[in-house]
Amino acid sequence: MAEDDEDRADALFHALADRTRRDILRRVLAGEHSVSALAAGYEMSFAAVQKHVAVLERAGLITKRRNGREQLASGDVAAVRSVGSMLTELEHVWRGRISRIDELIAADDTTDNEES
Amino acid sequence: MPVTDVSHDMDTLTLTIVAEFAAPVERVWQVYADPRQLERVWGPPSYPATVVDHDLRPGGRMTYYMTSPEGEKYAGYWEIATVDEPTGFTFDDGFAHEDFTPNPALPVSHNEYRFAAHDGGTRATYVGTYPSADALQTVLDMGVVEGASSAINQIDALLAP
């Protein structure tokens, strides 16, 4: 079992050791993308992007499905995210909201002068 | 740093966040009472929120949608349970179809927001409770994209030299 975990960790780190692959993973975690749409974003051949996608797929980070002639890739968020990290992600969302409230309130001071 | 305390309860799937704002309670209440202010703070700039209906009264409804960078719209609704102006309110937050009817296939979270005068400003306590780990996962998948990117940022942090 432990050996399997080590193999998986190897595949995971290998997959994430490349900047383009991390970028692809970010994009497919946000939503399903066709491999050709992904390829349009990089200065490399479609085949090269396809290879990157295959590495991510072998690491269990993304899943692919066929839709007619298209290959659609989506990020396997569960593989990237442990259950324990989900509340942390939500916290991150909340921190964003709270800083926006803070900015909104702070902007009052600059508009007060116009009201007088 | 306005966030002063965060607690995660893994057993009840509850996130509690305490923040302190340099403004009176009434001012913080206004953020929620005014739909134009609420939509400015609810979604990130990359995922702007648009509030459509806004009735912050017991039994009232608030409907909104968020627009993804790709132009996809994700609709949601708040069903207001209790209101104690200006010190807080409780509501259920769920996902909706495009016509804003609730989508029962997707999870509903229960939320309690409280605002109290503290140190010349306001201490806000936000409590959100999710029905299951799957629900939490769905909430994060459905338009809370900051979440997905933070998951990958954690990996980036791990790999940073």
TrEMBL record, chain A:
One GO MF term attached to the UniProt entry: DNA-binding transcription factor activity
Residue stretches making up the HTH arsR-type domain: 1-95
Pfam name, any one: HTH_20
InterPro entries tied to this protein: ArsR-like_HTH, HTH_ArsR_DNA-bd_dom, WH-like_DNA-bd_sf, WH_DNA-bd_sf
Protein name (database record): Winged helix-turn-helix transcriptional regulator
Source organism per UniProt: Pseudonocardia petroleophila
From TrEMBL, chain B:
Protein name: SRPBCC domain-containing protein
Pfam families the UniProt entry points to: AHSA1
Family recorded in the similarity comment: Belongs to the AHA1 family.
Taxonomic superkingdom: Bacteria
UniProt domain Activator of Hsp90 ATPase homologue 1/2-like C-terminal: residue ranges: 22-159
Annotated InterPro entries: ASHA1/2-like_C (IPR013538), START-like_dom_sf (IPR023393)
